[in-house]
Amino acid sequence: MKRNPTAFLKEEYQKLVEQNLDWKLRVLEGPSAPRSVVEGKKVLMLCSNNYLNLSNHPRLKKAAKDIIDTHGVGSGSVRAIAGTMDIHMEVEKALARFKKTEAALVYQTGFAANSGLIPQLVDKGDLIISDELNHGSIIDGVRLSGADRAIFKHRDYGNLEDVLNEAEKENYRRILIITDGVFSMDGDVARMDAIVNLAEEHGAMTYVDDAHGEGVLGENGRGIGAHYNLEGKIHVEMGTFSKAYGVVGGLIAGSRDLVNFAFNKSRTWLLSASHPPQVAAAQLAAIQVLESEPQHWKRLWDNTRYFKKELKSMGFDTGQSETPITPVIVGESSVAKALSDKLFENGVFALPIVFPMVAKDKARIRTMMNAGLTDEDLTDALQAFEKCGKELKII
Ligand SMILES: *Cc1c(COP(=O)(O)O)cnc(C)c1O
Fold this sequence. Notes:
Layout (H helix, E strand, L loop, with lengths): L6 H12 L16 E4 L2 E5 L12 H14 L14 H14 L3 E5 L2 H12 L5 E5 L4 H8 L4 E5 L4 H12 L6 E6 L11 H11 L2 E5 L14 H4 L8 E5 L9 E5 L1 H10 L1 H5 L5 H16 L2 H19 L11 E7 L1 H13 L2 E2 L2 E2 L9 E6 L6 H17 L4
Parallel strand pairs: 2-11, 4-5, 4-6, 6-7, 7-8
Antiparallel strand pairs: 1-2, 3-9, 8-9, 10-13, 12-13
Helix pairs in contact: 2-11, 3-11, 4-5, 6-7, 12-14
């Protein structure tokens, strides 16, 4: 019998559809903004990573437009061959200054940074110790490495210490402790001070994925290093330009030795083209805006505190969040989905997060605050939450 070699494509997709686990794409008509149009409906945007609304900042837009006239729209190559332009170098210089590190390096994406760098830092004879809730791009980076793996319980640094003590017996060549900075499902923050102390005691390397902390944590959004006064003390501060910076691109900040090692070794960096100049120009403008216009960062945190407090006082369970990611935990997946649909009808765009991304009984709406939302927008959003929450008997 001749088999159909691609029959599984449809079958597996159908299975996802039946279980309601397939992605239904929602199309934005126009920019990702605090007030967006999604499939013809005007909504308050509560699920984008564009925390500071920099993707619509005039300075970023102008920088991107202007450089096309002088540099064109493509870089022509990978960074290592002919794809490094003056603008790429300027971004890295500005980034190191902003992060107060010796050096910085830009990757195509945050995913490319994690999947490219982690397997170079550790290999056979080494150990990676990872928080159990780390991001998928870290997990893929870890899978590409030949190192042994150990997991510690989420933000449980007593458990991390136990794992480190166990590891002493094995005589590993290198140990890498790796964690998300801000955990994207709950909005809680890794205790980098505790991790750095333990790492120093045990001679381990530290690596933090600060994707949701760049532009958000620390004074003026310098990131998790600044948040804990640990600038220059975390061996690898990795992050992204795709969230609060409002553009796209991965980044690492640390020592000159780290950067020299990273770009000579990371396969993702070496084998995939560099950003077009308009991306780099917008990245540079984003750093300059963060340095010179603290009002966006302040507004993000004012909005965050207010929104969280009001949701709590309505009786919603907002979990352990310490950041502009505020989950509204409702329990059953079906309830989270119903709440999201109802919110959308009432002009609020916030998506449900359900099993397997979170535990079965912890389905939620994940809200993400935006600096561009006005007091009136927040009042409208909160009224929608109250109305829909009552209709579904959540509060
Ligand atoms: C978003 C995210 C990434 C991926 O960043 P991109 O630049 O979008 O590829 C990596 N790690 C974490 C924790 C993230 O939240």
